[in-house]
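B., you asked whether I could sanity-check this one before it goes into the benchmark set. Here's the sequence:
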Amino acid sequence: MSIAAFGSYLPPEVLTVDPAVAAADPMAQSPLFRLPDQRHRIAPTQRAADMVVEAARPMFERLGLEPAGNIDLLITNTLLPDECITGCGAEAAYRLGCDPALVLDLHNGGCGAFPYMLKIARAMISSGEARTVLLANIQNTAGQLFAQPELSGKQSAAIAGDGCGVAYVTGDGRSPVLGVHVRNTPAFAPDMSPATGDGRKYWAAGSGELEIVFDQQKSKEIIDRGNRLVPEVVGELCKQIDIDLGAIDYLVTNQPNRLFLRNWRRALGLEPEQHLDTFDRCGNLYGAAVPVTLDTAIREGRIADGSLVVMAGFAHAGDFAAAAAMRWHN
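And here's what the prediction gave me:
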């Protein structure tokens, strides 16, 4: 299995750091906790499928391909699905003018969704169920969930940014995916949950705004998990594919904050320039960070031909983590 190309889309509305907010938060003065310089936010009328189309069409144009007839399988991961029952896959396929035999809308995987989707794509290609796969990671909570009045002033809202990253996966070997490793720890799943303030189910009528909360009694434990998980799954992946950690040319991960980014690369013995991110341009992109950052770096010529690129992330309160490795060829 090979990744033929990446694509990305960032909404046109750009949010910059509010000096008053930054001045009022002493943690924001720290290099490790400083807010991102800018972020992008989707418009109220923008849908996840819109973002997929905006990211995928230019990628297919660069490849000299039409989506029609060239996508056997479409896999999407949307952080905040527009519809409560269905995902955006069918709508995105229709808007792209293609008719995949299979559409999978994954509502789990979180910030580790991109390697997870690669694992599914590899299984489908290996089994002969698909020859070509379009992967789409959509982060769309900054302009929706975090734009709610009660949440907009929180730290999580100040670093969240919207964006979509896509990848076109084929059965050839130009830029081969060398391996994918995932780790599930179901016992950690209850440590993160939706909350509404008034105790109702998220879909029930009421006045409290929907937000995602972590078990406050386990906050230190959850942070410790996050610091460990990415280096651990990267190490496990490299062991599986018999590659030394020192052979990694570039690491691309989810980007919750600067502290995690620093700790992950230090644990893996990487230099700052080897750990690519778009945090200052885009903020926390959740699962979309990996494909958006890779598309940005590749188009800017920052990844040399033949580079070993490792992609990784952990999700939620640590119940899921994943890593994948590819040998990139321009």
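One thing to flag: The chain has a mean pLDDT of 93. Otherwise nothing jumped out at me.
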